């Protein structure tokens, strides 16, 4: 929306649309070699015991590890290394899952890979006019970790041992590793029109036309690398932007207002002591301020020269004269301009000074120059009432945490000094246990490399002054509302409203296709009092107080309470209305239509409910009404809401436990067949598909590159490549594609005496043998093919042969041996010169015994593998049972737009084929039948009200 030129806006939207995969929320791992980030030389493995945890915490650990396991971000481990899991309580009382890598970080060899010099970055940006900023979605988790380093990231739950497959958060070399990766990805575009400071990527150009080209190039590079971006934190084609703590506009680079806000907006001194502290704080930088003594002279009278003056003047209320105010403002301006405040320069070390008082916190970010310390930014923040009650150690530590949050871009990936006048904090990283709040903060700073230095309060002047004259409003502990330890990779939703144009641009085309009236709605001007109107609408009661009083008097339960009100301490009356004693008191709602009306209004209506979930609806209703079974009734009402079921995404695993197919008794008794493709590009011979047949027991595969996926092609493949060479299989399993369900195909299978089995529609697990080979085959063929990938069909036979002559993970046998009864001889194998011919019956008997043994071993291994996979698959997965006659909703296939119905229906179950497979009939369209499995069904619950 900030791009006023319609043509320019469309051009930007077109680029974003073509690269919309960048904003896909599905986790992705970039296609680079796995990174080595944890070098520990010959240090023996470190094993840390797990911290004690309650059964509830153990369940949280289990759920979090399952999420990471499903995303492929961790794997099971046999590593001798182990770091403990820490659960940190968030503001909403839920827990955050963390790994405490302090001991691992202590022995890790620090990666010296350089971060870009910030002053050089600003030199590059100063000539540009247009800027685009990208932020990665959980950036660390997109970087693959080397197999050598994975065991070092290991951690344990109560029942298992895991290790990360991606770069974990909290390791000391995380920033350097990520910087190396992004430098490699951006390649020669760096320092020309793109730069990255860890996960903050910026594209800069002089003209809009150049910016379009640069934006398209970087988007293509990131898309090819399989990166995923966080749209809420991206900015596109801006003429003004904040980057690395500075505001950039029209070639000018100034400190961001947030960096000088802490000092620039500080109030006038109210007491002599405050004026004294300000003068002393400013005096710390006097060598950089011309004529300091002359400017500060009007305020000098507040600086005591004796102990008696110091004691008397501490709380003396003062009113500054015009000259004194002028001196105060002049010194503030000097401290926030280029004469004192400097752009950051990586050639000089950073230093953070912090302090806390009864009023709030103060902090200064400095760099140590040869001529003295130069400030980079200031921070000043008030305490909440709760924070005022914290211990001094907690308040002082909180100041450092706020400084890290504020200046993360400067401090991540470098070594810096933290100076504090609270001596106990020098042991923060050495003590085994601190109090819970400091322990949580200590986990937050794992990724930073710093040294704590104690300085006397008489030197810590500027932070002390800022803490006693705090500017920024108080807020809750930022760590309690942060979802990830690593700020460099976390998703920050605080700027969603500012950057929602990214999401809008990606979604624009789909939205235009489905609803042209959206533009009319969005352009409608609301009346000036619309906000107040909406508030009043939310406060509207569904019935009058008089009607509710009458209903209470007609209800036996409430009538009994009213008649014996003194016995019921949890109830009270107000103007004849029975109220529940809550804070504040709320009316009691008797049984009947009143409860139903309340449920409808606070769940179904647009103004008050908007079909939000159970917890939000309960919270709304319990603040306004009460009845004994309200939690149960609300839960049932929402559970039985058809629109919610049809449109809400299912956040749990698909229901239905795994029911593995029993392995066949022998080779060639059950085979599965499928087409794979169309494949792009088409080969030089014009082939676009691969037809594949797999023996279910031996896993032996036969493949052929073909031009199309018609029934005639499938029949020709069966005749010429299967039956004439290997014989007739007993059963053939296929999907429900028209090439396999055609009359010609069924007649052929009937003629050869085989049985034709079909997999359940839209349930590829049934025909998983071919699906598994297809996924394996693609990568291998691509690796062997030429640059244009047009000779992929030439490589198909080699990939198939190597697959058949390699041991299979589920059978622990070689498919070739099970098929032919002999070991394969590969090219370049050494062969014996002697040839033995044997035709006696003994040889045939031995061969039969050998094959039988292979078959039995394969079946045993398949069953074990199925049991192991089933155990993992069934974790946290419901196994619903359905009966004939029940009403259900069925998952919508091929959803095109965001607002499409996710579940169709209602359907009625009319036939049960297996415990997981059913025939359903549409209630309103009696001719519509479907064969489905439980993972696409959603039950319809009976509603109480």
UniProtKB/TrEMBL annotation:
Q: Which UniProt keywords apply?
A: Endonuclease, Hydrolase, Nuclease, Nucleotidyltransferase, RNA-directed DNA polymerase, Transferase
What superkingdom does the record give?
A: Eukaryota
Q: Which GO terms describe its biological process?
A: DNA integration
Q: Where does the Integrase catalytic domain start and stop, copy by copy?
A: 659-823
InterPro entries per the record? Answer: DNA/RNA_pol_sf, Integrase_cat-core, Integrase_H2C2, Retrovirus_Pol_polyprotein, Rev_trsase/Diguanyl_cyclase, RNaseH-like_sf, RNaseH_sf, RT_dom
Name the record gives this protein: Uncharacterized protein
Name the PANTHER family for this protein.
PROTEIN CBG26694, PROTEIN NYNRIN-LIKE
UniProt keyword Hydrolase, yes or no = yes
Q: Which residues form the Reverse transcriptase domain?
A: 69-248
Q: Which organism is it from?
A: Rotaria sordida
Q: Which GO terms describe its molecular function?
A: endonuclease activity; hydrolase activity; nucleic acid binding; RNA-directed DNA polymerase activity
Lineage, opening ranks? Eukaryota, Metazoa, Spiralia, Gnathifera, Rotifera
- Renumbered to this chain, region (Disordered) spans 470-489
**Which residue ranges run through the membrane?**
none
Q: Does the keyword Hydrolase apply?
A: yes
């Amino acid at each position: 929306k900030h791009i006023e030129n319609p043509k320019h806006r469309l051009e930007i939207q077109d680029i974003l649309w073509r690269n919309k995969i960048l904003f896909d929320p599905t986790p992705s791992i970039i296609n680079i070699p796995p990174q080595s980030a944890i070098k520990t030389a010959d240090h023996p493995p470190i094993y840390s015991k797990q911290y004690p945890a309650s059964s509830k915490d153990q369940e949280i650990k289990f759920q979090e590890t399952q999420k990471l396991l499903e995303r492929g971000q961790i794997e099971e481990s046999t590593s001798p290394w182990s770091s403990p899991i820490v659960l940190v309580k968030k503001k909403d009382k839920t827990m955050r899952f963390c790994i405490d890598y302090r001991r691992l970080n202590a022995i890790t060899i620090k990666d010296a890979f350089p971060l870009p010099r910030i002053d050089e970055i600003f030199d590059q940006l100063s000539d540009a006019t247009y800027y685009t900023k990208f932020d990665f979605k959980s950036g660390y988790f997109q970087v693959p970790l080397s197999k050598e380093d994975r065991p070092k990231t290991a951690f344990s739950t109560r029942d298992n041992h895991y290790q990360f497959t991606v770069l974990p958060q909290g390791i000391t070399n995380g920033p350097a590793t990520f910087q190396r990766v992004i430098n490699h990805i951006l390649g020669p575009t760096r320092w020309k029109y793109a730069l990255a400071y860890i996960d903050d990527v910026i594209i800069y150009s002089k003209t809009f036309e150049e910016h379009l080209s640069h934006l398209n190039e970087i988007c293509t590079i990131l898309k090819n690398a399989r990166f995923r971006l966080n749209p809420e934190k991206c900015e596109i084609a801006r003429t003004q932007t904040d980057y690395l703590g500075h505001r950039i506009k029209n070639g000018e680079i100034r400190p961001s207002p947030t960096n000088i806000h802490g000092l620039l907006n500080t109030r006038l001194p109210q007491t002599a002591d405050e004026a004294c502290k300000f003068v002393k704080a400013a005096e710390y930088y006097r060598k950089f301020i011309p004529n300091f003594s002359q400017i500060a002279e009007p305020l000098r009278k507040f600086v005591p020269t004796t102990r008696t003056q110091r004691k008397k003047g501490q709380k003396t209320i003062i009113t500054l004269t015009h000259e004194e105010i002028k001196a105060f403002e002049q010194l503030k301006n000097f401290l926030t301009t280029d004469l004192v405040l400097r752009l950051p320069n990586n050639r000089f070390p950073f230093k953070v000074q912090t302090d806390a008082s009864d009023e709030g916190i103060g902090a200064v970010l400095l760099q140590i120059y040869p001529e003295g310390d130069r400030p980079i930014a200031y921070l000043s923040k008030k305490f909440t009432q709760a924070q005022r009650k914290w211990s001094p150690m907690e308040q002082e530590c909180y100041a450092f945490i706020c400084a890290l949050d504020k200046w993360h871009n400067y401090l991540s990936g470098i070594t810096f000094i933290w100076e504090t006048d609270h001596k106990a904090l020098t042991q923060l990283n050495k003590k085994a246990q601190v109090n819970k709040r400091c322990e949580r903060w200590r986990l937050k700073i794992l990724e930073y490399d710093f040294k704590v230095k104690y300085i006397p309060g008489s030197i810590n002047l500027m932070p002390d002054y800022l803490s006693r004259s705090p500017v920024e409003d108080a807020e809750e502990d930022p760590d309690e509302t942060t979802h990830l330890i690593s700020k460099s990779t976390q998703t920050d939703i605080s700027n969603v409203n500012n950057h929602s144009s990214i999401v809008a641009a990606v979604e624009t085309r789909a939205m235009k296709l489905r609803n042209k009236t959206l533009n009319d709605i969005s352009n409608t001007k609301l009346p000036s009092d619309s906000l107040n109107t909406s508030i009043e609408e939310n406060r509207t009661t569904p019935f009058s107080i008089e009607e509710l009083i009458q209903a209470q008097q007609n209800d036996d339960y409430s009538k009994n309470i009213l008649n014996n009100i003194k016995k019921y301490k949890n109830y009270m009356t107000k103007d004849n209305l029975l109220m529940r004693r809550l804070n504040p008191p709320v009316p009691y709602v008797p049984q009947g239509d009143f409860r139903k009306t309340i449920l409808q209004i606070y769940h179904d209506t647009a103004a008050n409910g908007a079909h939000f979930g159970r917890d939000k609806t309960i919270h709304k209703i319990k603040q306004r009404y009460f009845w004994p079974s309200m939690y149960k009734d609300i839960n049932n009402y929402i559970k039985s809401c058809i629109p919610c079921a049809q449109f809400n995404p299912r956040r749990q695993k698909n229901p239905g436990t795994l029911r593995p197919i029993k392995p066949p008794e022998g080779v060639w008794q059950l085979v599965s067949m499928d087409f794979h493709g169309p494949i792009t590009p088409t080969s030089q011979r014009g082939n676009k598909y691969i037809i594949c047949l797999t023996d279910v027991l031996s896993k032996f595969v036969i493949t052929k590159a073909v031009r199309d996926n018609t029934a005639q092609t499938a029949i020709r493949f069966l005749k010429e490549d299967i039956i004439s060479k290997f014989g007739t299989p007993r059963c053939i399993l296929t999907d429900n594609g028209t090439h396999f369900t055609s009359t010609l195909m069924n007649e052929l299978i009937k003629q050869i005496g085989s049985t034709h089995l079909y997999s359940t529609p839209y349930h590829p697990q049934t025909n998983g043998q071919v699906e598994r080979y297809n996924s394996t085959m693609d990568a291998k063929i691509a690796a062997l093919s030429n640059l244009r990938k047009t000779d992929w069909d030439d490589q198909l036979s080699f990939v198939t042969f190597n697959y058949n002559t390699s041991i299979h993970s589920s059978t622990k046998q070689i498919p070739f041996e099970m098929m032919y009864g002999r070991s394969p001889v590969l090219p370049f194998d050494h062969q014996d010169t002697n040839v033995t011919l044997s035709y006696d019956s003994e040889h045939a008997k031995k061969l039969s015994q050998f094959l039988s043994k292979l078959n039995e071993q394969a079946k045993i291994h398949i069953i074990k593998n199925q049991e192991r996979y089933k155990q993992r698959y069934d974790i946290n997965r419901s196994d619903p049972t359905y009966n004939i006659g029940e009403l259900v909703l069925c998952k919508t296939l091929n959803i095109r737009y965001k607002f499409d119905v996710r579940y169709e229906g209602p359907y009625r179950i009319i036939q049960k084929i297996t415990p997981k497979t059913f025939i359903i009939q549409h209630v309103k369209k009696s001719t519509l039948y479907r064969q489905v499995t439980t993972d696409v069904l959603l039950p319809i619950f009976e509603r109480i009200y």
